Amino acid sequence: MSTEPSRQLETFPNPNAERDYIIRMRLPEFTCLCPKTGQPDFAELHLEYVPDQLCVELKSLKLYIWSFREEGGFHEAMTNRILDDLVAATNPRFMRLTADWNVRGGIYTIVTVEHRQPDWQPADPAITESKVRV
To answer: What family does the Swiss-Prot or TrEMBL record give for this protein (predicted)?
Structure first.
C-alpha cells in the first residue's frame, strides 16, 4: 500500500444510505505553502458531511491532505478546492469544511465552505452542533 501523497480520493458504499447521519472528522495537520512567501501555512481542518451513496475512505483522505504540502495557495482557494474535490468524489447530501488557519502576520483566518444537494433538506437533528469537540 502506498504511503506517498496522492490526489486520488477513494470512496466506499454508504452502509446506511437510507438514513441521514453526520460524519465528522478533524484533520489537525494540514500544510501548504504561502503563495507570496513560500513559507508553510498550517491549518486544522474540520470536515462534516451527510453522505448519500458514498463515503470517503480515510487513508486516501490522509494522503490527499498530505499532497498539498508543497503547493502554494491562498487560504480561501485551498479551502474551496478541498471541498470541491471531496464533493466531486462523494456527491454528499451535505458537506461543510472549516479551515482554521494558524496565525500569519498577527491574523488568524477561519474559512468555512459548504455544499448542499439542491433538493436535500436536513431532518431537524441532522445538522446540529456537536457536544463533543471534533
So the answer is: Belongs to the GTP cyclohydrolase I family. QueF type 1 subfamily.
Is 18 annotated to bind a ligand? Reply is no
115 annotated among ligand-binding-site residues: no
Q: Is 41 a catalytic residue?
A: yes
Domains of the chain, each with CATH number or no CATH: 11-116 (3.30.1130.10)
58: annotated binding-site residue?
yes
Sheet with 94-104, strands from edge to edge, namely 23-33, 40-50, 94-104, 107-116
The residue from 20, 32, 41, 55 that is catalytic is 41
pLDDT in tens, 32-43: 999 999 999 999
Q: Is 32 among the residues known to form the active site?
A: no
Q: Say whether 56 counts as a known binding-site residue.
A: yes
Reported as a single tens digit per residue, the pLDDT across 57-107 is: 999 999 999 999 999 999 999 999 999 999 999 999 999 999 999 988 889
